[in-house]
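Thread: quick sanity check before group meeting

JM: Hey all, I'm pulling together slides for Thursday and realized we never actually wrote out the predicted structure for the chain we discussed last week. Dropping the sequence here so it's in one place. If anyone has concerns about the input, flag it before I start.
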Amino acid sequence: MNVPTVVLISNDVVPGMGLPVAAPGLRVFGLGEGLRRHGFRVVTVVNEAPVRSLWSGEGLPPLPPDTRVVPTGEIGDFVTRQAPAIVVVTNYRSQLYGLRPSPGLHPIIDLFAPKMLEVVCNPDRPDRTQALAALRERKLRAMAAAEGFIVNGTKKVPYFLAWLLQAGHDPLTTPLEPVFMCVPSHFPAGGSARTGLRFVVAGYLQGWSLPGVWLDHLVDRLVPPRVTLDLVLPAHWGRRRQAGTSNHRVAGLAGRPGVTVHGMMAYDDYLDFMGQVDVAVDLFEHTLEREYAVVTRSVVALACGVPVIHPPFTEVSPLIAAFDAGWLVDPADLGAVDAVIDAIIGHPEVVAAKAANARRLWQEVLDPEVAVRPLVKLARRLAAK
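JM (edit): ok, ran it. Output follows.
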């Protein structure tokens, strides 16, 4: 029996390139890792544009095995040469348009995030109306060309079923499989005795999801060196024009006792860094977009065995609750935020138990081999056509 080939198309850099990585690249990397464990041959195609934005060296950065950097306009031709193959397109805004109908090519769209809601909820988009119209047209055109879909989280299934209807697909017969965000684990080696309690707030600043007053409440409770805070909050390289959204609250914390501010990190360095912290704080105001979010920075923290303080309304929230892998608190309820932080500082021994639960959550849900099983089923079904 031939080994099925899956081509994964990413519009962002992926781990293994010695560069910072954001959610789309992590998504593609996790899918690839899981598919390989199920026996698929996987080829990852990375759009050249973000690589050129990030890489300042000669030629190309180091590439993971079976990864190719391809100019946007050549992606369609490259993928066509891989036939027969399953083609999974994540963040498809331009890449899918270069794919021509071809015998043996079976396109799957990864419905990774509710991009329309990101635009709606982003206060830094003065061109919101025009952007929504253009995005809707591209989305429908791309979705009409796909044979199947995967969706990042079950809560978004009804949202995307409505999009399938608009794109002319029959939702009763069109394959749509929930495939949760997944990344390989990076648990720190045991046996090292830690002193103190180290909180971290990390993730790219986004116009629709900025740190709020709760951050001041956390900083007010720091008691260095016993209780400290690390901040890793760079502006994403693709949103440099929004760097002003790096809000005054974050900028004003540099130099505060117990606060260490870090710049952008390569992904491998970031994983090693996460292995040194105790609690990740990932809070943000409720919006329509956050209601459907599988928050990648929380997923990465859990995959590093770090419990998370998280809101109660995202796609990640039920998992944290089910596995007791952190604390759920409404960031708008500052009294509740204070109570959670005070309880952790007063009883730091609970952190170890929740860290063990985070590892179990990864093993049962976020391990790529586990998470991609619905995609494996869909890929084999299409390959057999």
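AS: nice. Residues 241-245 have pLDDT under 50 and may be disordered. The first helix runs from residue 23 to 37.
JM: adding both to the slides.
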